[in-house]
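anyone else get weird line breaks when pasting these?? whatever heres mine. first is seq + tokens for prot A
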Amino acid sequence: MPPQPEITYARQLERAASWASSVVFTTELAEQRLVPARFVDDVMRTAAREVKTIRADIAARDEVSEAVGPLIIVMNDKQYLKRHTNGFVTDIAVVVIIGMAFVLAVLAIPVQWLGH
């Protein structure tokens, strides 16, 4: 039996959040000079590749991409937001937050049915 779409989506969100944490932690270690620059570059390259894959998987889900796509585009528009554009980590945060809201909304439906 294939996994439920909500489970698959939740796992993708978990992966994105994990990579965001890895990037933040690696940045903190680099600022303290506790890891070599080559390690930082490797983590950043791998994270970028993985998040790109996760984004593509999430974008394939119409109901989520309709909400996330415009936000990501606007929040990365340097002409519109100047120096206040999103970075790599905040793009992930947007995807994770909207995704969690979607999952919670889907999970709330059976709870509402059971409550009546």
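and prot B, same format (seq, then tokens)
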Amino acid sequence: MSTDAAPDHPHLADRLPADAYWQLIRTLRLTLPPPATDSPDDLARRDHAAIARIAALAPANAAEPSSPRSSSPPRSSGRTA
């Protein structure tokens, strides 16, 4: 079985407006360290891996919380009235 198989989800470029995708890739390429080689394939792999990690941080839908919520009550300031 090949580990280079394409993911079964649509490419991000197909889901974002062209300007947003261009800006995302530009920002990534300016901030990420260079890939292992100068190969265009390695550059694309690095970019896609970074995009996937960023996308995983977003909630899947409106019902999913965007951050873990604490179940503990709020802390008091320690002062008494």
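btw re prot B: Confidence is low (pLDDT under 50) at residues 1-9. The helical segments are 12-15, 18-31, 40-55.
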